[in-house]
Write a structure and sequence with these properties.
single chain, 120 residues, mainly alpha, Arc Repressor Mutant, subunit A, 3-stranded antiparallel sheet, 6 helices, 12% strand, elongated
């Protein structure tokens, strides 16, 4: 059940576009709350609440650096989520292949027959 709880927390954290944007920013390097809040039209306390969600999900760590508290991306939970999703890739690919075959068949059925040379 630990894996299930971890995946639940990861996907819940990723469900919010602001948190996804924060993770994208942290993929470029550590950042303070004020640096993370900069591109958003929300308060630093709101950013801090998002950071707490990400931290509880294990997606970031936070540590004090002199007078700033820096956030750092932790990629392991993303890897676990990716592995879980990868199990379903074969199903998706099979569905897409069947859809492609169906579309090809429908196109063949609806394509007008070519005109013969010299026919009017």
């Amino acid at each position: 059940m630990k894996l299930s709880a971890s995946l639940d927390a990861t996907f819940a954290a990723l469900s919010d576009p602001t948190r996804r944007a924060i993770l994208a920013r942290l993929a470029k390097g550590d950042a303070s709350v004020s640096e993370l809040a900069e591109p958003f039209d929300i308060s630093q306390p709101a950013i801090s609440r998002h950071l707490k969600v990400l931290e509880r999900a294990g997606l970031i760590t936070r540590e004090a650096d002199a007078q700033r508290r820096l956030s750092r991306l932790q990629a392991k939970p993303l890897g676990v989520a990716s592995e879980w999703l990868e199990r379903y890739r074969a199903i998706w690919e099979g569905n897409f292949q069947r859809l492609d075959a169906l579309l090809d068949e429908l196109q063949r059925k609806t394509k007008p027959a070519p005109k013969k040379k010299g026919a009017r």
